[in-house]
Amino acid sequence: MNEQTRVFTSPDDQVAWLGTDPIPAHVYYDPEWYELERKAIFLREWLEVGHMCELPQPGSWIRRELEFANASILIVRGKDDRVRAFYNACTHRGTQLVEEESGKGANFLCPYHFWNFGDDGRLVAAPDFDRFALTKDQCRIPGIAVDVVAGLIFINLDPNPRQSLREYLGAYADRMETMPVAHATTFAEYTYEIDANWKITYDNFQENYHLRHVHGLTGVATVHKDNLYGYPDSYGFNGPHRTQQIWSNPEPLIKPMQGWNMGLNVRLAMEQGLIGGPEDRMYFALFPSFFCIGTPIQHFSHKVYPLGPTKSRGVIRVYWCGQDRSASERYAREYAICAIHDIHVEDVNIINRAQKGLLSGALKHIHFMNMEGLCRHLYQNVVARVEAYKTEIAASGDVK
Ligand code: FES
Ligand SMILES: [Fe+2]
Hints:
Number of helices: 9
CATH topology of the largest domain: Naphthalene 1,2-dioxygenase Alpha Subunit, Chain A, domain 1
Structural class: alpha+beta
Strand content: 25-35%
CATH architecture of the largest domain: Alpha-Beta Complex
Helix content: 25-40%
Strand order of the largest sheet: 2-11-10-5-4-3-6
CATH class of the largest domain: Alpha Beta
Distance between the termini: 24 Å
Number of strands: 19
Order of helices and strands: HEHEEEEEEEEEEHHEHHEEHEEEEHEH
Bound molecules: FE2/S2 (inorganic) cluster, fe (ii) ion
């Protein structure tokens, strides 16, 4: 894939190249289109699924459910310190090896007939194995491509990924390595399920146009008289991925709106010298459905897993580096996750309503203005992959 790095002088210029065409509405609910996305994107692109702080020691492992692939997978840090991924499926008759979300141990023992697998997916022992016309080597669990950038664990379900993870992320890989999340040691997490297409859900968090109207109660601090909609300072694009430099409110405490005052954790962080450079306020959106933002004292990430054409699951995390160094730092951290959760409740409600309005099929198109350019960029990259997939299938004569 050609990397596309663009440098412009104003946010408006930075998104002009994306055009202004209306967007077909059916891509947000049509089951046939969703099936194409599933095969063209989610079964063959690199997907973020966790963080290395979940695998603190050799032998640590985590399970992830990937409903869009009907797959449960295990990600394991082996005794040799290598990270591997394989399916949570016994090669005897398919039984899932573990039900727990995470654990630690050198082996995975199937509960059905006690086949025992090593931390690399090899079959190491099986009762009365001589009665099978098999070698143990033939019983290795199929592996899954896995790699780590900035502490974040990515997998690729394509048996032969077309790019390495670093090729896929391009210049963003090194930039993300400098972010706090690369050194995170723990996190707070909450998940949500929503009756909405994954793109509708994700797009809500790619634009600031709605902040002023949807978040009046929680009072998102980016809204200010100098920037009524909290538009970002700049946008950037890199292949299918994108960034925005989050605008910083110069008066986060002076004119708090009713309810939450999001400036509080910023002030506490400033007082303690925890705020870093501008890269700390950079929003990285990684195709297809993951983004992370470096905020002053923690690192926020959000990913959206598709569960069906109009159903999704979101996973939100606030990553922390090290232990709290003071009571106010602890307070600021707890405050941040609570504030994010409250803001998010407002988002979920409006995303649901957006999906409901589209389901009748009465609207043939929807529209993005230029400051919703990141949503347009996602749509264009989805279409490009679906079209490439259709061409590939047609050329191969395959009917899948
Ligand atoms: S299904 Fe796993 S040992 Fe039989
Ligand atoms: Fe929002």
